[in-house]
Amino acid sequence: MITIEIKPPYLIFVGDETDTSYAKTGAGLIEWRPELCVGQIGINGGGIDGAPHMTIQEAKEAGVKSLVIGTAAIGGGVPDVWLDTLEEALAAGMDIVAGVHQLLNDNERLVAAAKKSGSRLIDVRVPPKDIPVGTGKKRSGKRILMVGTDCAIGKKYSALAIEKDMKKAGLNADFRASGQTGIMIAGRGIPIDCVVADFISGAAEMLSPDNTDDHWDVVEGQGGIYHPGYSGVTMGLLVGSQPDAFVVCHDAVRTHISGWDDFPLPSIQDVINRVTEIGKQVNPDIRCVGICVNTSQLGGETREKYLSDLSAEYGLPCVDPIIDGTMPIVEQVKSEFPE
Amino acid sequence: MITIEIKPPYLIFVGDETDTSYAKTGAGLIEWRPELCVGQIGINGGGIDGAPHMTIQEAKEAGVKSLVIGTAAIGGGVPDVWLDTLEEALAAGMDIVAGVHQLLNDNERLVAAAKKSGSRLIDVRVPPKDIPVGTGKKRSGKRILMVGTDCAIGKKYSALAIEKDMKKAGLNADFRASGQTGIMIAGRGIPIDCVVADFISGAAEMLSPDNTDDHWDVVEGQGGIYHPGYSGVTMGLLVGSQPDAFVVCHDAVRTHISGWDDFPLPSIQDVINRVTEIGKQVNPDIRCVGICVNTSQLGGETREKYLSDLSAEYGLPCVDPIIDGTMPIVEQVKSEFPE
């Protein structure tokens, strides 16, 4: 399979960060894959909730295979103050994994240390080589794709929540990561937005390969099909994923495409229509199975009415995945796709 | 402007090729930009029609600024047998321009020779750096985009023919190249299919920047909006180009997407509908102004009936650009967009 592969278990590196909201990747890993996060390591007093502090030596003894950089430095680089710890991890035989803007593989000290120990520097922003052009050929197994009325609207969270609830409901499911943070959480994936344009749908095909008939790939979405900057990525991911089902992710109070103030947010119906039309090219039976909404800006009663009205309007389960979970959507999937 | 820029005039390098159909890029340059093609140079008896043979020294004296590789070698590389001539051109101060699969900039002898003389090695498959994300902001001037029912269906040829006929009709027009051969012909452009996915529409915006109100960018299309492999590229180019008008390119006898035999060719109407729907996001007034059809497989009378039936069906000018030219489409543009 042509994807990035990260070896578990992990030691989470949080730098000098103490606020979970600034160490998002680390916090996401601890939230979604606690069983893979053996410990955390900080510098200058850094640390977040959810995993025991360890030295590199202790992590090595605990069997850690990868140190994952779970925070971002100002400027998106690898600050010199991180290097002693990272070199120590490489010397202990651990891979280092990062999604920072400046590549690990462009840092001379890290490259030299990795070469010496035989460890890998895994930049999850760099797609695997030899991604083919998409074939459109029907694959076995089933796929559910997250799409959104915008970027940064809960597609990754929704996919992870649906994977978790599908497993809880006894379904055979795997989260398929198409973005950097998702790849760190899943331990594998392809950063679709970093792939060369001709190979977007081919990369999406690699991301959800043939599988058993009862298996669901829960595919993290990217961009937005109406997005003025990123719709090409969304198009290629949709066509390559050939989804059987999709979920629309939305924000209850957002009115415009975030950062593109000239563009009103498309309606949920617009997104359902266009995704269905395009998706039919590669999967004639594609259908929407639910709507995930970020309702954090609504009060309790308003929130409940908003979701029930939406559900009545679309005839679909509508949930806030953070508050409600996604089990109603999983039930919809089970009823629409009986074994 | 963030595009590749090639300095004219050109010396066309044809290797040992003597058949125009195997030196397509060179032949295309001589067809569409004869005024820029000062001469040609071959090796081992190579040569095609349309430009005088010259030595490097003669070309230098004639003011040539770029040697353009106008043929492809088996395997897509730069054969050793080409290198003496290419080094001589670099030493004479010419840039070398190529769209071959193996990059000029990966060839040690050429890199060394270019460094010595200060000449450039221009790989037109490599997009410029620092392409931004698309903004979707409305630009001044007007744009006409070629779209297709498939790849390799005459989009580049149609765009070049429309540029030529627009100029003949007194319009202010420029061909905008989005592919390798087009870039060599235009002397500038961006290879949209080689851009990283997040930046496709941003690259398209760079390709057709703000212009005077009377100006038309005639934008070369890529891929196909229904294509299982390349629709992501087509989507990004469409959204970034924000076209006022578009032309559908089609082949009269093609029944399936070429190389993707499971996929029937979409109808012209399907393509018009989808391109219009998507294009409206960035240009509410987008409309189809004509259809260009490759009718080379039809007989004379069949051909005429085919095009007149098509024209009646769609209410649009329908031409074979190679046989008929594209003046009826230019007339349609003039009537739809009066000055």
Description of the molecule:
The structure is a homodimer of 339-residue chains. By secondary structure, chain A is α/β, with parallel strands linked by helices. Chain A has two domains: 4-123, NAD(P)-binding Rossmann-like Domain (Rossmann fold, 3-Layer(aba) Sandwich); 142-336, P-loop containing nucleotide triphosphate hydrolases (Rossmann fold). Chain A has twelve helices and 15 strands. The first copy, chain A, has helices at 24-32, 56-61, 80-91, 108-117, 155-168, 180-186, 200-207, 231-241, 268-279, 300-314, 321-324, 327-336, and strands spanning 4-5, 10-15, 37-42, 66-69, 95-98, 121-123, 142-148, 172-176, 188-189, 215-219, 245-251, 256-257, 260-264, 287-294, 318-319. In chain A, the strands form four sheets. In chain A, strands 8-10-7-11-14-15 form a six-stranded parallel β-sheet, with helices on both faces. In chain A, strands 3-2-4-5-6 form a five-stranded parallel β-sheet, sandwiched between helices. In chain A, strands 1-9 form a two-stranded antiparallel ribbon. In chain A, strand 5 (95-98), helix 4 (108-117) and strand 6 form a beta-alpha-beta unit. In chain A, helix 3 (80-91) packs parallel to helix 4 (108-117) and helix 7 (200-207) crosses helix 8 (231-241). Chain A is globular, with a radius of gyration of 20 Å. At the A-B interface, helix 7, helix 8, strand 13 and helix 9 of A face helix 7, helix 8, strand 13 and helix 9 of B.
